Amino acid sequence: MTGRTDLFDTSRIFYGDATHIVGAFASYRFRLGNVRTRLQLNINGLNNDNGLHPYTAVDGGNGTPRFDRYSVGPGRNFALTTTFDF
Predict the structure, then answer these.
(1) Residue 65 lies in a domain
(2) CA–CA separation, 34 vs 6, rounded Å?
(3) Looking at residue 46, what DSSP letter applies?
(4) Is residue 3 part of a domain?
(5) pTM of the complete model beyond 0.85
(6) In this predicted model, what pLDDT tens digit does every residue of 9-51 receive, in sequence order?
(7) CB 3.0 to 4.6 Å from 75: which of 24, 28, 50, 71, for a disulfide?
(8) What is the pLDDT of residue 1?
(9) d(Cα 9, Cα 1) in Å, to the nearest integer?
């Protein structure tokens, strides 16, 4: 059996769809007694992209990609932080 040389043809690269992750933050400064205080809310994944995204593909035999590995989008997460300056 001879080895195939066309399995990894770097001249025919497959690309999946572009993915975009949108984030935002809001910050509020105030005094709590004599202490300067800051609250900050960070939100990542505003577009709530939790679908499947292909990240490896092989040739399906006819020149079209067959995606064989997928990753799950990051979804949405929140972080609320408080900073006190004495």
Answers:
(1) yes
(2) 71
(3) T
(4) no
(5) no
(6) 677 676 667 778 889 999 999 999 999 999 999 999 888 777 7
(7) 50
(8) 46
(9) 20
Give the C-alpha separation, 58 to 69, whole Å.
Answer: 10
In the structure encoding, which two tokens stand for residue 38, read together?
Answer: 């800051």
Look up tokens 């770097």; give the residue.
10
In a domain, 13, yes or no: no
What is the maximal distance between C-alpha atoms in the chain? 81
Q: Is residue 76 part of a domain?
A: yes
Contact of 47 with 21, CB cutoff 8 Å: yes
Report how far residue 41's alpha carbon sits from residue 51's, in angstroms, rounded to the nearest whole number: 25
Task: Give the residue numbers spanning the domain of 51.
Answer: 23-85
75/46 Cα distance (integer angstroms) = 8
Q: In the chain, how many domains are there?
A: 1
